[in-house]
Amino acid sequence: MNNNMDPPRHLMLPSGSLGGNAEPGAGGRALCGDLEMRISHDGTWYYHGTPIGRKEIVRLFASALTRDEAGDYWLVTPAEMGRIAVEDVPFIAVEMMAEGHGKEQILRFRTNIDEIATLDHEHPLTIVTDPVSGGPTPFVVVKKGLEARIARPVYYELVNLGLEE
Q1: What b-and-e string marks burial along 142-158, b requiring 16 or more CB atoms within 10 Å of the CB?
Q2: Which domain holds residue 53?
């Protein structure tokens, strides 16, 4: 577990990690610019200011979501790509499943779009301390450098599993 002062939303992806190993506009993709799509702080996806109510549609968009080296979020398909606004991070970890005990315990997090991330080296947990309140905000990497903020009730469950050393 890391305790960084910089939010994990500033993670940098390796060069060429965008979609099919192409930078924005490269690889024959049409660059659509900024799309009228955003993900709010609570994980709700909006299109033209209207919430997208069907989880299946959100999951489809999320499967095309990636992030460039500058920290911008993009929806990338084989033919097109467009930037979207993300207020915090794209996902919320809404459930935690624990198997085993102690240091050998395996922790899995389910996001608001039913993605599962198992806590490991590729999916680390990071705790960011709010400089104003001093309160902790935990994040877990879900996929391809995309993070989920761990919901407060899930964070409390995680804290209860902690071991004193």
Answers
A1: bbebbbbbbbeebbebb
A2: 24-86
